[in-house]
């Protein structure tokens, strides 16, 4: 056969790609796809390099660490207090009824009409 001649076609073979994957050994033509674990940046890549490029990062003193811990404790206590107030406000059903009185009345009236209509239809 000449180099320009088309290959003879197998009658059972389709030109469309197969739906089932073909198992081929990995190589230059078939590289192994990297798993998502290998794509994650290393911990060193996540740390911003500036402003200490090329030098060691300065160490914090124990007093600075204690001050940070005290500040975070203080912020946490405020956050917990705020969350507690919000939960109390949301779960107080009396205040919810006062805030949403109109919606509750409209819903009760609509429910009354539906129940009354169903009872009227059953009697017939």
Describe this structure in words.
- By secondary structure, the protein is an all-alpha fold.
- It has a domain at 64-124.
- It contains five helices and no strands.
- The protein has helices at 36-39, 43-46, 62-91, 93-99, 101-123.
As residue ranges, the low-confidence spans are none
How far apart are the termini?
90 Å
Whole-angstrom Rg = 36 Å
So what's the overall shape?
flat
Helix content: 40-55%
Mean pLDDT: 76
What is the succession of H and E elements?
A: HHHHH
Largest sheet composition: none
Beta fraction of the residues?
A: under 5%
Number of strands: 0
Alpha-beta classification: mainly alpha
- List the total number of helices: 5
Q: Brief description of this entry?
A:
The protein has helices at residues 36-39, 43-46, 62-91, 93-99, 101-123. It is mostly helical and 124 residues long.
Strand and helix layout:
Elements: H1 36-39, H2 43-46, H3 62-91, H4 93-99, H5 101-123
List keywords for this structure.
124 residues, mainly alpha, 0% strand
């Amino acid at each position: 056969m000449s180099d320009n001649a088309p290959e003879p076609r197998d009658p059972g073979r389709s030109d469309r790609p197969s739906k089932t994957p073909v198992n081929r050994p990995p190589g230059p033509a078939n590289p192994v796809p990297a798993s998502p674990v290998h794509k994650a940046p290393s911990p060193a890549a996540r740390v911003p390099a500036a402003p200490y490029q090329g030098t060691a990062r300065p160490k914090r003193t124990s007093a600075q660490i204690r001050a940070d811990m005290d500040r975070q404790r203080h912020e946490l206590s405020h956050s917990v207090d705020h969350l507690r107030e919000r939960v109390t406000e949301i779960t107080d059903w009396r205040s919810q009824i006062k805030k949403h009185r109109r919606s509750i009345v409209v819903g009760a009236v609509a429910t009354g009409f539906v129940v009354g209509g169903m009872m009227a239809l059953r009697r017939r």
